[in-house]
Design brief:
This protein is an alpha/beta fold. Helices cover 46% and strands 18% of the residues. The protein has 15 helices and 14 strands. It starts with a helix and ends in a 7-residue tail after the last strand. Mean pLDDT is 91; it is low at 1-28.
Length: 472
C-alpha cells in the first residue's frame, strides 16, 4: 500500500513540476523576442546613438540569456523614410528576424518650421507635400522590410519638445506634425506589422507631467530633438513594456521556520539550514537583475522600472524579530528587518549584491558593443549612404563600387579639405570592414557566453541577526 501511495505521490509531483515548468515557458513566450532572434534597429540619429537599443539589449541578455539574442544598430543620422527604403540591403545583410523602425524626425523638414520662417501659402504647400511623401513612403517601406520574413516593430517618432522653457529657439509646429505622423503609424501599421510601440504619446505624457514641477524639464536634449539619457531610458522602458517583457528576475518566498518554499519563480533553492541566529541556503537564479547604466541619467525614476521590469524578490517569513545582515556568496549585501523580509525585498534595487556586480560587468560589455557598432555605422555605412550615392536608387553599390567611387571623388578634392578627410577616413575603415564585422560578432558571442555562465549558479545566501539595529 505504501509503495502504491509513493508511486502515486511521485507521479503527482512529477506532473506538478512539469506543469510549473510549462507555465514558466508559456510566460516566457509572451515576450516578443524569440530564441535566436536577430534584431535590427532602423532609424535616424536617435537610433544611431544606440542608447535606447543598449537598454533594451541589456534587459534582454540579463533576463533571457538562453535566448542568445543579437542586436544590430541600423540607424543613420539625418535619415528619412525614403532614405531607409533605399538602404534595406544594408539591413538585410544581417539576416534579421526582427526589424524595428522609428523614422519621421527628419521627414518633417525642420526648415519649414524655423523661427524665422514666415507661414505663407507656399510654405504650407511644401509642408503638405512633405507630409504626403511620408504617408506614401511608410506603407511601402513597411512592406519592404517584411518582404524577407522579418517581424516588424513600427515605432512612432519620438517627440520634438515645444513646451520646455529652454534657451534653444522653438520651431513651432514641428511637434504637431510628428504627432500627425504618429497617428498615421498607429492607424496604418497594425495590419502590416507584428507590433506597434507608441513613443510619441508616452514621452509627451511624461514630459508634460514633469514640466508641471519644472518648466525647464525636457525628456529630450537641449536641442529639443535628441532624447539621450533619461529620454532614451524611457523609450526602452516603453518598448519593453509593449513587447510583453516580464517584471520577474526571480522570486522566492520561504518559511524560515521549516524551509518550506511557498513560491519559487525562475530560481531553485537547496541546502536550507536554520542557524543559531538566522537561516542559510543555496539559491540559483535563471536571470540577472538589470543594472541601470550611467547613460540613463535618472530615467528609471520617471517610470515604474523596478515594479514593472526588474523584480528580484526575496521573501523570508517567520524570522525572529530583529534586523538581519544578508550575505550572498560570502559578501555582505545589505541589512533588512524581519518585517521587511517577511513582506519581500527587491534585491534588484540593491547595488551591492553579488549578482548585481556581475550584471554591471555585463552592462560594460553592452556599452562597449554599442560604441563599436556606432563606429562601424559612422565610419562606413553613414558615409556610403550620404556621400557616395548620387541618387536614392534602391539598388546599392557593391563594396568594390563604393571604394572605386570614393577614390574617384577623392582624386578631385584638395587632400586637406573636409570632404577629402571624410573620404580618407571612410577608405581606411572600409579596408577593415571585415575586421569590424568579425569583432562585433565576437563581442555578441562573448556577451551571451558571459551571461550564460553567470546564471543558474548556486550561491550561498545567509541571513544573520545584525549587531546594530536599523534606524526606523
Amino acid at each position: 500500500m505504501m509503495k502504491k501511495f509513493l508511486k502515486i505521490s511521485l507521479s503527482a509531483l512529477a506532473s506538478a513540476i512539469f506543469a510549473t515548468t510549462l507555465l514558466g515557458a508559456l510566460k516566457c513566450e509572451e515576450f516578443f523576442f524569440k530564441k535566436g532572434d536577430k534584431v535590427c534597429f532602423a532609424g535616424d540619429s536617435i537610433t544611431f546613438a544606440g542608447e535606447y537599443m543598449a537598454h533594451i539589449q541589456l534587459y534582454c541578455v540579463t533576463r533571457f540569456p538562453e535566448k542568445n539574442l543579437e542586436f544590430f544598430n541600423c540607424g543613420i543620422s539625418g535619415d528619412k523614410a525614403f532614405g531607409v527604403k533605399s538602404r534595406t540591403a544594408g539591413i538585410f545583410r544581417y539576416n534579421p528576424t526582427v526589424i524595428t523602425l522609428m523614422i519621421g524626425m527628419n521627414d518633417v523638414e525642420s526648415g519649414l518650421y524655423g523661427p524665422q520662417t514666415k507661414v505663407t501659402d507656399a510654405v504650407l504647400a511644401k509642408r503638405e507635400a512633405v507630409d504626403k511623401r511620408y504617408f506614401e513612403t511608410m506603407p511601402a517601406l513597411m512592406e519592404l522590410l517584411t518582404s524577407e520574413g522579418a517581424r516588424l516593430v513600427a515605432i512612432t517618432p519620438s517627440i520634438y519638445d515645444e513646451t520646455a522653457v529652454l534657451k534653444r529657439e522653438n520651431w513651432a509646429g514641428r511637434a504637431a506634425t510628428l504627432e500627425k505622423y504618429s497617428a498615421f503609424i498607429k492607424d496604418e501599421a497594425p495590419a502590416r506589422v507584428a507590433l506597434v510601440v507608441d513613443f510619441n504619446s508616452f514621452m509627451t505624457q511624461i514630459n508634460l507631467r514633469e514640466q508641471q514641477k519644472d518648466p525647464a524639464f525636457t525628456i529630450v536634449g537641449e536641442d529639443r530633438v535628441h532624447p539621450r539619457g533619461k529620454g532614451a531610458f524611457v523609450m526602452a522602458y516603453k518598448f519593453l513594456k509593449d513587447a510583453g517583457a516580464p517584471a520577474c528576475v526571480a522570486e522566492l518566498e520561504l518559511d524560515a521556520a521549516n524551509g518550506e518554499v511557498s513560491k519559487s519563480e525562475n530560481c531553485e533553492l537547496s541546502n536550507f539550514k536554520k542557524t543559531k541566529d538566522g537561516v542559510r541556503f543555496e539559491l540559483s537564479e535563471g536571470s540577472l537583475p538589470m543594472p541601470v547604466m550611467d547613460i540613463a541619467e535618472g530615467g528609471e525614476k520617471l517610470v515604474d522600472f523596478y515594479k514593472d521590469l526588474n523584480r528580484e524578490i526575496l521573501c523570508v517569513k517567520n524570522l525572529a524579530d530583529g534586523d538581519y545582515e544578508l550575505a550572498i556568496g560570502g559578501s555582505i549585501a545589505g541589512k533588512y528587518s524581519a518585517k521587511q523580509l517577511a513582506e519581500g525585498v527587491n534585491l534588484a534595487e540593491n547595488t551591492h549584491t553579488y549578482q548585481y556586480e556581475i550584471a554591471l560587468s555585463i552592462a560594460s560589455c553592452v556599452a562597449e558593443y554599442r560604441q563599436k557598432a556606432k563606429d562601424f555605422v559612422f565610419n562606413i555605412e553613414q558615409i556610403e549612404h550620404h556621400n557616395l550615392k548620387s541618387d536614392m536608387a534602391d539598388n546599392p553599390l557593391s563594396d568594390a563600387e563604393y571604394v572605386a567611387l570614393a577614390n574617384e571623388k577623392l582624386s578631385k578634392l584638395d587632400p586637406k579639405s573636409k570632404d577629402a578627410k571624410l573620404l580618407q577616413r571612410y577608405l581606411a575603415a572600409k579596408a577593415k570592414q571585415g575586421e569590424y564585422l568579425r569583432e562585433l560578432a565576437k563581442l555578441r558571442f562573448e556577451l551571451n557566453e558571459k551571461v550564460n555562465a553567470a546564471v543558474n549558479v548556486k550561491r550561498v545566501y545567509e541571513l544573520k541577526l545584525a549587531h546594530t539595529v536599523l534606524e526606523p
